[in-house]
Amino acid sequence: MIEKVILVDVHDNAIGTMEKLEAHEKGLLHRAFSILLINEKGEMLLQQRALEKYHSPGLWTNACCSHPKPNESNLDAANRRLKEELGMNVPLTEIFLFTYRAAFDDGLIEHEIDHVFLGRTNDNPRINLTEVMSYKWINLTDLKMDMNAHPDKYTAWFNLLMVDHFSAIQNAMKHES
Question: Please, where are the H alpha helices in 89-155?
């Protein structure tokens, strides 16, 4: 099945659709989402991407991220992928969005308006091994220290999220508790 993404303008207005790989080859701006999951200890759930992923294989990242399908809301897409990748149903709240562009060694380019969702759970995931190699819960202080020391262990978008938007994430965590 050919997976399509929603192409958008800089204001996140849908302007068309394109096959996902082609959009990443051309570096065209499209809609995406990232999910952050926090437990009652204030730890964040990270996943290690499966080695079969078409980019950033084996890297650590936020709980889940993907793209909504055409005619699918961001929240519906986030809930769908959370279930598909991690076997989880968690109430999610959109906390902000950001735009980023990152080029990869394989020639692919992520150019996305990324809608960031936050959820709270103490459940452990039931990972889909075709999507996720491993997972861990980590204290935010330890995470920030490790990301500063080893940014190459983490996906490009997660590095940007945790560097450029860390205060917004912390603020949202306080309001969600």
Answer: 140-149
pTM score, two decimals?
0.94
Q: For the residues of 17-52, what is the DSSP string, one character each?
A: EEEHHHHHHHT--EEEEEEEEE-TTSEEEEEEEPTT
> What are the residue boundaries of the structural domains of the chain, listed by start?
4-176
152-161 residue pLDDT tens: 999 989 999 9
> Which of the following is catalytic: 3, 22, 112, 131?
112
Q: Which CATH superfamily is domain 4-176 in?
A: Nucleoside Triphosphate Pyrophosphohydrolase (3.90.79.10)
Annotation says 112 is catalytic: yes
Options 65, 85, 94, 176, the catalytic residue: 65
Catalytic, 64? Answer no
Q: Give the whole-angstrom CA distance, residue 145 versus residue 124.
A: 24
Q: Do residues 86 and 132 make contact, with C-beta atoms less than 8 angstroms apart?
A: yes
| Alpha-carbon distance values, 168 to 14, 88, 96 (Å) | 26, 24, 8
